[in-house]
Amino acid sequence: MKFSELGLNDQLLEALGYMGFDKATPIQAQAIPAVLNGKDLIACAQTGTGKTAAFVLPLLDHLSRNPSEGIKVLIVVPTRELALQIEKEIQGFAYFLDLTALAIYGGGDGINFSDQKKALVEGTDIIVATPGKLLAHMNLDYVDFSTLKFLVLDEADRMLDMGFIEDIQKIIDACPAKRQNLMFSATMPHNIKQLANKLLTDPFEITLALSKPAEGVLQAVYLTYESQKIGLIDTLIDGKDDYQSILIFSSTKRKVFEIVQSLKSKNFDVDGISSELDQQKREEVLMKFRSKQTRILVATDVLSRGIDIKDINLVINFDAPNDAEDYVHRVGRTARADTTGVALTLLNPDDMYKFKLIEDLIEREVTKVEVPRELGASPKWNPRQIPRGGRSYGKRKPRRNFSKGR
Fold first, then answer.
1. Which tens digit of pLDDT belongs to each residue from 120-151?
2. Could you say which architecture CATH assigns to the domain 3-208?
3. Domain spans in the chain, listed from the N-terminal domain onward
4. Distance CA 16, CA 269 (A)
5. Claim: this prediction has a pTM higher than 0.85
6. Neighbour tally for 176: CB within 10 Å
Protein backbone atom coordinates (compact mmCIF):
# COMPACT_ATOMS: atom_id res chain seq x y z
CA MET A 1 0.00 0.00 0.00
CA LYS A 2 1.25 3.48 -0.86
CA PHE A 3 1.34 6.32 1.68
CA SER A 4 -0.88 8.32 -0.69
CA GLU A 5 -3.67 5.81 -0.01
CA LEU A 6 -3.63 6.24 3.78
CA GLY A 7 -5.33 9.64 4.07
CA LEU A 8 -2.28 11.69 5.10
CA ASN A 9 -2.17 15.37 4.21
CA ASP A 10 -0.26 16.75 1.23
CA GLN A 11 2.56 18.29 3.29
CA LEU A 12 3.39 14.93 4.87
CA LEU A 13 3.22 13.16 1.51
CA GLU A 14 5.57 15.78 0.06
CA ALA A 15 8.05 15.23 2.90
CA LEU A 16 7.82 11.46 2.42
CA GLY A 17 8.49 11.93 -1.28
CA TYR A 18 11.62 13.99 -0.60
CA MET A 19 12.81 11.27 1.79
CA GLY A 20 12.29 8.58 -0.82
CA PHE A 21 9.38 6.83 0.90
CA ASP A 22 6.54 5.59 -1.29
CA LYS A 23 5.17 2.31 0.04
CA ALA A 24 4.09 1.79 3.65
CA THR A 25 5.35 -1.19 5.64
CA PRO A 26 2.73 -3.61 7.02
CA ILE A 27 2.67 -1.98 10.46
CA GLN A 28 2.34 1.49 8.90
CA ALA A 29 -0.48 0.35 6.62
CA GLN A 30 -2.42 -1.00 9.62
CA ALA A 31 -1.55 1.56 12.30
CA ILE A 32 -1.90 4.85 10.40
CA PRO A 33 -5.63 4.50 9.53
CA ALA A 34 -6.43 3.27 13.06
CA VAL A 35 -4.67 6.24 14.69
CA LEU A 36 -6.26 8.68 12.25
CA ASN A 37 -9.66 7.24 13.24
CA GLY A 38 -8.99 8.02 16.91
CA LYS A 39 -8.45 4.46 18.10
CA ASP A 40 -6.21 3.46 20.98
CA LEU A 41 -3.55 1.12 19.63
CA ILE A 42 -1.34 -1.72 20.83
CA ALA A 43 1.24 -2.98 18.36
CA CYS A 44 3.66 -5.85 18.78
CA ALA A 45 6.42 -5.62 16.19
CA GLN A 46 10.15 -6.14 16.10
CA THR A 47 12.76 -3.51 15.34
CA GLY A 48 13.15 -2.52 11.70
CA THR A 49 9.46 -2.76 10.79
CA GLY A 50 8.91 1.00 10.53
CA LYS A 51 6.95 1.43 13.75
CA THR A 52 8.20 4.98 14.43
CA ALA A 53 6.61 6.33 11.27
CA ALA A 54 3.52 4.23 12.06
CA PHE A 55 2.68 6.53 14.97
CA VAL A 56 4.55 9.74 14.08
CA LEU A 57 2.86 10.26 10.70
CA PRO A 58 -0.79 10.12 11.87
CA LEU A 59 0.04 12.27 14.92
CA LEU A 60 1.65 14.91 12.71
CA ASP A 61 -1.37 14.76 10.42
CA HIS A 62 -3.73 15.40 13.35
CA LEU A 63 -1.64 18.25 14.78
CA SER A 64 -1.35 20.00 11.41
CA ARG A 65 -5.12 19.85 10.88
CA ASN A 66 -5.98 20.87 14.46
CA PRO A 67 -3.54 23.58 15.61
CA SER A 68 -3.65 24.49 19.29
CA GLU A 69 -1.42 25.70 22.12
CA GLY A 70 0.56 23.62 24.61
CA ILE A 71 2.05 20.15 24.60
CA LYS A 72 -0.12 17.86 22.48
CA VAL A 73 1.95 14.67 22.16
CA LEU A 74 4.11 12.87 24.72
CA ILE A 75 6.25 9.96 23.50
CA VAL A 76 7.95 8.00 26.30
CA VAL A 77 10.95 5.83 25.38
CA PRO A 78 13.54 3.80 27.34
CA THR A 79 16.80 5.40 26.13
CA ARG A 80 18.22 8.76 25.12
CA GLU A 81 19.40 7.25 21.82
CA LEU A 82 15.85 6.30 20.88
CA ALA A 83 14.56 9.71 22.00
CA LEU A 84 17.05 11.46 19.72
CA GLN A 85 16.27 9.12 16.83
CA ILE A 86 12.53 9.77 17.05
CA GLU A 87 13.08 13.53 17.37
CA LYS A 88 15.14 13.50 14.16
CA GLU A 89 12.52 11.44 12.33
CA ILE A 90 9.81 13.88 13.42
CA GLN A 91 11.88 16.79 12.11
CA GLY A 92 12.20 15.05 8.75
CA PHE A 93 8.53 14.13 8.41
CA ALA A 94 7.38 17.57 9.63
CA TYR A 95 9.69 19.53 7.32
CA PHE A 96 6.76 21.30 5.63
CA LEU A 97 4.66 21.65 8.80
CA ASP A 98 4.69 24.39 11.42
CA LEU A 99 5.26 22.00 14.35
CA THR A 100 7.93 21.69 17.03
CA ALA A 101 9.45 18.69 18.80
CA LEU A 102 12.15 18.19 21.43
CA ALA A 103 13.85 15.20 23.05
CA ILE A 104 14.04 15.23 26.85
CA TYR A 105 16.85 12.98 28.11
CA GLY A 106 19.67 12.84 30.62
CA GLY A 107 23.40 13.11 30.30
CA GLY A 108 23.60 16.76 29.26
CA ASP A 109 24.79 19.91 31.02
CA GLY A 110 22.92 22.76 32.66
CA ILE A 111 22.32 24.48 29.32
CA ASN A 112 20.67 21.33 28.01
CA PHE A 113 18.43 21.16 31.08
CA SER A 114 17.52 24.83 30.62
CA ASP A 115 16.53 24.24 26.98
CA GLN A 116 14.39 21.29 28.01
CA LYS A 117 12.68 23.34 30.73
CA LYS A 118 11.95 26.12 28.25
CA ALA A 119 10.38 23.66 25.80
CA LEU A 120 8.20 22.16 28.51
CA VAL A 121 7.10 25.52 29.91
CA GLU A 122 6.39 27.11 26.52
CA GLY A 123 4.48 24.08 25.28
CA THR A 124 6.44 22.35 22.49
CA ASP A 125 4.00 20.39 20.29
CA ILE A 126 5.72 17.02 20.68
CA ILE A 127 7.86 15.89 23.60
CA VAL A 128 9.95 12.71 23.29
CA ALA A 129 11.29 11.75 26.71
CA THR A 130 12.99 9.14 28.82
CA PRO A 131 10.98 8.48 32.00
CA GLY A 132 13.55 9.45 34.60
CA LYS A 133 14.52 12.77 33.05
CA LEU A 134 10.90 13.71 32.39
CA LEU A 135 10.03 13.02 36.03
CA ALA A 136 12.95 15.21 37.13
CA HIS A 137 11.28 18.11 35.31
CA MET A 138 7.79 17.15 36.51
CA ASN A 139 8.95 17.16 40.11
CA LEU A 140 9.83 20.84 39.77
CA ASP A 141 6.14 21.67 39.12
CA TYR A 142 6.38 23.54 35.82
CA VAL A 143 5.30 20.74 33.45
CA ASP A 144 1.72 21.16 32.23
CA PHE A 145 0.11 18.25 30.39
CA SER A 146 -3.43 19.65 30.51
CA THR A 147 -3.41 20.17 26.72
CA LEU A 148 -2.11 16.66 25.96
CA LYS A 149 -4.03 14.74 23.28
CA PHE A 150 -1.78 11.73 22.67
CA LEU A 151 0.37 9.48 24.88
CA VAL A 152 2.76 7.04 23.19
CA LEU A 153 4.76 4.34 24.99
CA ASP A 154 7.46 3.04 22.64
CA GLU A 155 9.44 -0.13 23.43
CA ALA A 156 7.21 -0.67 26.44
CA ASP A 157 8.68 -4.10 27.16
CA ARG A 158 12.17 -2.60 27.38
CA MET A 159 11.02 0.14 29.76
CA LEU A 160 9.42 -2.37 32.10
CA ASP A 161 12.48 -4.60 31.90
CA MET A 162 14.64 -1.62 32.91
CA GLY A 163 12.50 -1.02 36.01
CA PHE A 164 10.53 2.00 34.77
CA ILE A 165 7.04 0.77 35.70
CA GLU A 166 6.59 3.15 38.66
CA ASP A 167 7.90 6.11 36.67
CA ILE A 168 5.58 5.31 33.77
CA GLN A 169 2.60 5.10 36.11
CA LYS A 170 3.43 8.54 37.56
CA ILE A 171 3.63 9.98 34.06
CA ILE A 172 0.31 8.39 33.07
CA ASP A 173 -1.33 9.78 36.21
CA ALA A 174 -0.17 13.30 35.25
CA CYS A 175 -1.85 13.12 31.84
CA PRO A 176 -5.48 14.11 31.13
CA ALA A 177 -7.95 11.26 31.38
CA LYS A 178 -9.30 12.03 27.91
CA ARG A 179 -6.54 11.24 25.41
CA GLN A 180 -5.57 8.75 22.72
CA ASN A 181 -3.05 6.10 23.81
CA LEU A 182 -0.61 4.24 21.58
CA MET A 183 1.58 1.42 22.87
CA PHE A 184 4.38 -0.36 21.00
CA SER A 185 6.31 -3.40 22.21
CA ALA A 186 8.60 -5.95 20.57
CA THR A 187 7.27 -8.69 22.85
CA MET A 188 4.06 -9.21 24.75
CA PRO A 189 4.83 -10.71 28.18
CA HIS A 190 2.26 -10.77 30.98
CA ASN A 191 3.30 -7.44 32.52
CA ILE A 192 2.88 -5.66 29.19
CA LYS A 193 -0.60 -7.12 28.80
CA GLN A 194 -1.46 -5.90 32.31
CA LEU A 195 -0.24 -2.38 31.49
CA ALA A 196 -2.16 -2.40 28.20
CA ASN A 197 -5.36 -3.40 29.97
CA LYS A 198 -5.01 -0.45 32.35
CA LEU A 199 -3.93 2.11 29.76
CA LEU A 200 -5.92 1.34 26.61
CA THR A 201 -9.63 1.52 25.82
CA ASP A 202 -10.95 -0.89 23.18
CA PRO A 203 -7.60 -0.81 21.37
CA PHE A 204 -6.87 -1.71 17.76
CA GLU A 205 -4.36 -4.58 17.96
CA ILE A 206 -1.46 -5.29 15.60
CA THR A 207 0.90 -8.25 15.85
CA LEU A 208 3.65 -8.54 13.25
CA ALA A 209 6.70 -10.80 13.01
CA LEU A 210 6.79 -11.39 16.76
CA SER A 211 10.37 -12.07 17.81
CA LYS A 212 11.56 -13.34 14.45
CA PRO A 213 14.63 -12.01 12.64
CA ALA A 214 14.00 -10.56 9.21
CA GLU A 215 14.00 -13.07 6.36
CA GLY A 216 16.96 -11.36 4.73
CA VAL A 217 19.31 -12.12 7.64
CA LEU A 218 21.83 -14.92 7.05
CA GLN A 219 22.42 -16.27 10.57
CA ALA A 220 25.24 -18.52 11.79
CA VAL A 221 26.89 -19.52 15.06
CA TYR A 222 30.61 -20.05 15.55
CA LEU A 223 31.37 -22.60 18.29
CA THR A 224 34.31 -21.09 20.16
CA TYR A 225 36.17 -21.04 23.41
CA GLU A 226 36.41 -17.61 25.00
CA SER A 227 40.13 -17.38 24.28
CA GLN A 228 39.48 -17.82 20.54
CA LYS A 229 36.99 -14.98 20.11
CA ILE A 230 39.34 -12.04 19.52
CA GLY A 231 41.27 -13.95 16.87
CA LEU A 232 38.03 -15.09 15.27
CA ILE A 233 36.78 -11.50 15.01
CA ASP A 234 39.94 -10.56 13.08
CA THR A 235 39.43 -13.52 10.73
CA LEU A 236 35.75 -12.78 10.12
CA ILE A 237 36.41 -9.17 9.12
CA ASP A 238 39.74 -9.54 7.30
CA GLY A 239 39.27 -9.48 3.53
CA LYS A 240 35.57 -8.58 3.72
CA ASP A 241 35.99 -5.25 1.97
CA ASP A 242 32.42 -5.36 0.67
CA TYR A 243 31.18 -5.12 4.27
CA GLN A 244 31.27 -1.36 4.67
CA SER A 245 29.28 -1.18 7.91
CA ILE A 246 29.93 -3.69 10.72
CA LEU A 247 28.38 -3.68 14.21
CA ILE A 248 29.81 -5.82 17.03
CA PHE A 249 27.94 -6.34 20.32
CA SER A 250 29.64 -7.40 23.53
CA SER A 251 28.38 -7.89 27.06
CA THR A 252 30.78 -5.59 28.94
CA LYS A 253 32.61 -2.28 28.60
CA ARG A 254 35.92 -4.08 29.20
CA LYS A 255 35.35 -6.34 26.21
CA VAL A 256 34.45 -3.35 24.04
CA PHE A 257 37.85 -1.88 24.86
CA GLU A 258 39.69 -5.16 24.18
CA ILE A 259 37.97 -5.70 20.82
CA VAL A 260 38.60 -2.12 19.70
CA GLN A 261 42.28 -2.29 20.67
CA SER A 262 42.75 -5.60 18.86
CA LEU A 263 41.10 -4.38 15.66
CA LYS A 264 43.01 -1.09 15.75
CA SER A 265 46.28 -3.03 16.03
CA LYS A 266 45.32 -4.72 12.73
CA ASN A 267 44.67 -1.27 11.17
CA PHE A 268 40.90 -1.67 11.00
CA ASP A 269 38.78 1.51 11.02
CA VAL A 270 36.98 0.95 14.33
CA ASP A 271 35.46 2.82 17.26
CA GLY A 272 33.73 1.76 20.49
CA ILE A 273 30.71 3.01 22.39
CA SER A 274 29.48 2.24 25.89
CA SER A 275 27.97 3.96 28.91
CA GLU A 276 31.45 5.25 29.85
CA LEU A 277 31.22 7.88 27.10
CA ASP A 278 29.37 11.12 27.80
CA GLN A 279 26.36 11.96 25.66
CA GLN A 280 28.18 14.30 23.29
CA LYS A 281 30.91 11.76 22.58
CA ARG A 282 28.37 8.98 22.06
CA GLU A 283 26.52 11.11 19.51
CA GLU A 284 29.80 11.90 17.71
CA VAL A 285 30.70 8.20 17.51
CA LEU A 286 27.23 7.28 16.22
CA MET A 287 27.26 10.09 13.66
CA LYS A 288 30.60 8.93 12.24
CA PHE A 289 29.29 5.37 12.01
CA ARG A 290 26.03 6.44 10.36
CA SER A 291 27.89 8.54 7.79
CA LYS A 292 30.29 5.64 7.03
CA GLN A 293 33.30 7.59 8.33
CA THR A 294 33.79 4.68 10.75
CA ARG A 295 33.50 1.19 9.29
CA ILE A 296 33.30 -0.89 12.48
CA LEU A 297 31.45 -0.01 15.69
CA VAL A 298 31.83 -2.09 18.86
CA ALA A 299 29.06 -1.56 21.39
CA THR A 300 27.47 -2.80 24.55
CA ASP A 301 23.72 -3.45 24.69
CA VAL A 302 22.99 0.30 24.65
CA LEU A 303 22.56 0.00 20.87
CA SER A 304 20.67 -3.29 20.68
CA ARG A 305 17.35 -1.50 20.30
CA GLY A 306 16.06 1.76 19.02
CA ILE A 307 18.94 3.02 16.89
CA ASP A 308 18.05 3.51 13.25
CA ILE A 309 21.34 2.90 11.43
CA LYS A 310 20.71 1.80 7.87
CA ASP A 311 22.66 -0.51 5.57
CA ILE A 312 24.56 -2.49 8.19
CA ASN A 313 26.12 -5.42 6.37
CA LEU A 314 27.32 -7.52 9.29
CA VAL A 315 26.30 -7.87 12.94
CA ILE A 316 28.54 -9.92 15.24
CA ASN A 317 27.44 -11.01 18.70
CA PHE A 318 30.77 -11.34 20.52
CA ASP A 319 28.68 -12.73 23.40
CA ALA A 320 25.28 -14.36 23.19
CA PRO A 321 22.59 -12.06 24.59
CA ASN A 322 21.33 -12.86 28.08
CA ASP A 323 17.74 -12.61 26.92
CA ALA A 324 16.27 -14.39 23.93
CA GLU A 325 14.34 -11.36 22.65
CA ASP A 326 17.52 -9.27 22.70
CA TYR A 327 18.99 -11.57 20.05
CA VAL A 328 16.21 -10.50 17.70
CA HIS A 329 16.92 -6.83 18.32
CA ARG A 330 20.66 -7.19 17.82
CA VAL A 331 20.17 -9.17 14.63
CA GLY A 332 17.57 -6.60 13.60
CA ARG A 333 20.31 -4.01 13.05
CA THR A 334 20.98 -5.69 9.69
CA ALA A 335 18.70 -6.68 6.76
CA ARG A 336 16.41 -3.69 7.29
CA ALA A 337 13.91 -2.41 4.77
CA ASP A 338 13.96 -5.54 2.59
CA THR A 339 17.76 -5.67 2.29
CA THR A 340 20.00 -8.61 3.17
CA GLY A 341 22.60 -8.93 5.91
CA VAL A 342 24.70 -11.32 7.94
CA ALA A 343 24.45 -11.97 11.70
CA LEU A 344 27.10 -14.12 13.41
CA THR A 345 27.20 -15.19 17.06
CA LEU A 346 30.34 -16.40 18.85
CA LEU A 347 29.18 -19.10 21.23
CA ASN A 348 31.23 -20.56 24.06
CA PRO A 349 30.17 -23.75 25.90
CA ASP A 350 28.52 -21.83 28.77
CA ASP A 351 26.27 -19.97 26.33
CA MET A 352 24.98 -22.95 24.36
CA TYR A 353 22.06 -23.59 26.68
CA LYS A 354 20.71 -20.05 26.39
CA PHE A 355 21.22 -20.00 22.63
CA LYS A 356 18.98 -23.06 22.39
CA LEU A 357 16.29 -20.90 24.04
CA ILE A 358 16.88 -18.30 21.34
CA GLU A 359 16.37 -20.94 18.66
CA ASP A 360 13.17 -22.04 20.37
CA LEU A 361 11.93 -18.45 20.35
CA ILE A 362 12.68 -17.76 16.67
CA GLU A 363 11.51 -21.27 15.72
CA ARG A 364 14.64 -21.90 13.72
CA GLU A 365 17.83 -23.88 14.12
CA VAL A 366 20.78 -21.63 13.34
CA THR A 367 23.70 -23.11 11.40
CA LYS A 368 26.66 -24.08 13.61
CA VAL A 369 30.20 -23.54 12.30
CA GLU A 370 33.60 -24.51 13.70
CA VAL A 371 36.37 -21.93 14.01
CA PRO A 372 39.16 -21.93 11.41
CA ARG A 373 41.80 -24.61 12.08
CA GLU A 374 44.54 -22.10 12.81
CA LEU A 375 42.59 -21.01 15.91
CA GLY A 376 42.47 -24.54 17.31
CA ALA A 377 39.65 -26.99 17.92
CA SER A 378 36.06 -25.87 18.48
CA PRO A 379 33.90 -27.04 21.37
CA LYS A 380 31.11 -29.43 20.44
CA TRP A 381 27.53 -28.17 20.27
CA ASN A 382 25.96 -29.27 23.54
CA PRO A 383 22.89 -27.18 24.48
CA ARG A 384 22.12 -29.48 27.42
CA GLN A 385 25.32 -28.51 29.23
CA ILE A 386 24.48 -26.68 32.46
CA PRO A 387 26.24 -23.29 32.54
CA ARG A 388 28.83 -22.76 35.24
CA GLY A 389 27.09 -21.63 38.39
CA GLY A 390 23.88 -23.37 37.37
CA ARG A 391 22.41 -20.14 36.03
CA SER A 392 19.09 -20.31 34.21
CA TYR A 393 18.79 -18.38 30.98
CA GLY A 394 15.05 -18.14 30.70
CA LYS A 395 13.22 -14.86 31.11
CA ARG A 396 15.37 -12.47 33.06
CA LYS A 397 14.08 -10.55 36.01
CA PRO A 398 13.46 -6.85 35.50
CA ARG A 399 16.71 -5.01 36.10
CA ARG A 400 16.93 -2.03 38.32
CA ASN A 401 17.83 0.96 36.25
CA PHE A 402 20.23 3.25 38.10
CA SER A 403 20.37 6.05 35.55
CA LYS A 404 16.68 6.07 34.51
CA GLY A 405 17.57 8.15 31.53
CA ARG A 406 19.02 10.97 33.63
1. 999 999 999 999 999 999 999 999 999 999 99
2. 3-Layer(aba) Sandwich (3.40)
3. 3-208, 217-390
4. 34
5. no
6. 11
